[in-house]
Amino acid sequence: MALFHQKEGMIMKKLSMIFFLFGVSLAFADSDEEIFLRGNQLYNQEKYADALSSYQRINKKNNAVWYNMGNSFYMLHDYYNAYAYWCKAAQSCSTAQYKMAMANIATVEQKLNKTLTFNRRAWRLIDGWQPLVVQLIFLFFWCILFWRAAYWYRQRRTIALIVLIGCVGLSALAVAGKYYVMRQQRALVIHDQAPVFIGPRNDYQQVGALEKGTEVKVVERREQWVKIKNKQLKGWIAQENILEL
Q1: Are 199 and 226 spatial neighbours (Cβ–Cβ below 8 Å)?
Q2: In terms of Cα–Cα distance, which of 103, 72, 111 is closest to 87?
Q3: Which of 8, 38, 81, 90 has its C-alpha lying 20 to 30 A from 179's C-alpha?
Q4: How many CB atoms lie within 10 A of CB 221?
Q5: Alpha-carbon span 53 to 151, nearest angstrom
């Protein structure tokens, strides 16, 4: 038990350190920046619910806000929402920020006993790469193939040629996968038993409910409603019940 508390304390200290790193690069209006700094102050005073309320008041939220909201949820032991907001923060950020967010996401996944499939691990790896990096890797292997293929074929260096062709194929799949991931509009459910309706209003027939933390694909938007789908069901959900990634 003492070891568990020691580990928990180390995680909290890590969150606090990363919290400041994310907070140094802001692009807010003056009022939003004041609210953000006030939230930081409340967070450092261990008033996590009040800090969260401050962050929620910010009109133009960026990755720093999403990240610190995830920190606040984590400290309030709302791990599903911590997971959701860290996933949001991991979108369209620098490589260093992405790694920090993913480290915390991995911690929460252990707490929630989330298991990742091989496909999910592969997509997450690709998602962490910048598009330009993926393209340059593909271009690098393609140039080598164009330069050496004929020579290696004449020299009967079959194994080397097969390996190079495999690298070109894998890097091409990585490029395709990266842009597939970028086109996907995903969201996470952030409230328990969020109702899903057959149409974009409460008076439509309810087709089911989704648990907090469920990942869905966004199909369509209409005012304050979002059409979503996953393997279990398809329908309309109130926008307040999901966090779009």
Answers
A1: no
A2: 103
A3: 81
A4: 14
A5: 65
Question: Exposure pattern of 111-143 as b/e (b: 16+ CB <10 Å)?
Answer: eeeeeeeeeeeebeebbebeeeebbebbeebee
Higher pLDDT, 177 or 164: 164
pLDDT of 69-91, one tens digit each? 999 999 999 999 999 999 888 87
Read off the pTM.
0.67
Which range, of 74-83, 129-138, 199-208, averages the lowest pLDDT? Answer: 129-138
CA angle in degrees (0–180, nearest 5) for 67-102-169: 130
Q: What is the 8-class DSSP label of residue 198?
A: S
Rg, the chain, Cα only: 22
- Structure confidence by residue, pLDDT tens digits, 216-227: 888 888 889 999
What residue type is 88 in one-letter code? K
| φ, ψ at 194 (rounded to 5°) | -70, 120
- And the tokens for 187? 């969201």
Which letter does DSSP use for residue 239 in this model? Answer: G
* Both tokens assigned to 199: 């149409």
d(CA 68, CA 90) in angstroms, rounded, equals: 12
- Which contacts qualify for 23-26: CB closer than 8 Å, 24 or more apart? 23/64, 23/68, 25/64, 26/62, 26/64
| Residue 197, phi then psi, degrees to nearest 5 | -115, 160
